[in-house]
Amino acid sequence: MARILCVTAHPDDEAAAFGGTLRLYHDRGCEIFVVCLTPGQAATYRGATKTDHELAAMRRKEFAASCEILGIDRGIVLDYVDGQLYRADLHRVVADLVLHVRELQPHIVLTFGPDGAVTGHPDHSMASVFATLAFEWAGQSKRYPEQLGEGLRVHRAQKLYYATFDFTLPDRPLTSPAPATTVVQIGDYVNAKVAAFAAHTSQAPVFPVVRDTILARAKVELFHLAATSKPSKGVAETDLLENVVED
Questions:
Q1: Is residue 61 in a domain?
Q2: Which domain holds residue 67?
Q3: What is the pLDDT of residues 171-181, one digit of tens each?
Q4: Quick check: is 112 in a domain?
Q5: What is the pLDDT of residue 149?
Q6: Per the domain annotation, does 56 fall within a domain?
Q7: What's the whole-model pTM score?
Q8: CB 199, CB 58: distance < 8 Å
Q9: b/e per residue, 151-177, with b = 16+ CB within 10 A?
Q10: I need a labelling partner for 52 at 20 to 30 A (CA). Which of 96, 155, 157, 239 fits?
Q11: Is residue 245 part of a domain?
Q12: How many domains does the chain have?
């Protein structure tokens, strides 16, 4: 079976940006993993929590509920500081992601583009940088060689995709998204996407806007094929698994 790893910045990113695709490919028999870099403790909307620690704990539970809805086989939340990923030690973060790539051995890696998606969030941009380097370095024996051995080995994922968008948000900074190379028709999986976002109850104040934005997108999610393990010419796709060789 094919394995897909999605790297995000905050709990709720997995639903809002990737949810339809993750559920679709789960139902097609793929094994789905998500690594979220922060527990989202700096969010504007905080539910009834009083401290960052309480909010982080709440958002971890919400993330787990969302993963259940989306059919995510393993959801991992790391402990980097929300809103401060640009300050994080690059080699440390990439080492963490390389370790997960080598453990999980995905065929495909999904993440944001360096534009930061429609919100232009700097954490999304940094997630892109970290995940891109991890995609490249996990397959190189000279990168983090201390990880190798005891069952771990280098691993080259076959494709790296950035989520991309064909719209902007009026109250957000303008970004320069990557052109869409891959259009995934998520159909009625849009409902799972909406339900998964709704599981993030701390973010309830923004739910109506997010829901309406999702439902206005014609039941598609767009991706940019950013890198492949073998040199290739860019072509339009409708399937992330196109040209993927499964184990």
A1: yes
A2: 3-228
A3: 888 899 999 99
A4: yes
A5: 87
A6: yes
A7: 0.96
A8: no
A9: eeebbebbbbbbbbbeeeeeeeeebeb
A10: 96
A11: no
A12: 1
Residue closest to 42 by CA, chosen among 81, 9, 78: 81
Structure token pair of residue 72? 């995510």
- What are the CA-CA distances from residue 29 to residues 25, 119, 210, 246 (Å)? 6, 31, 28, 12
Q: How far is CA 4 from CA 18, 21, 105, 176, 191, in A?
A: 12, 10, 9, 26, 21
Q: Are 155 and 139 in contact (CB under 8 A)?
A: yes
Distance set, CA 155 to CA 115, 161, 191, 207, 212 (Å)? 27, 17, 34, 38, 39
Are 42 and 240 in contact, with CB atoms under 8 Å apart? no
pLDDT in tens, 184-239: 999 999 999 999 999 999 999 999 999 999 999 889 999 999 999 998 888 899 99
Tokens representing residue 246 in the block: 């499964």
Beta bridge partners of 225: 161
CATH number at residue 123: 3.40.50.10320
DSSP state of 41: T
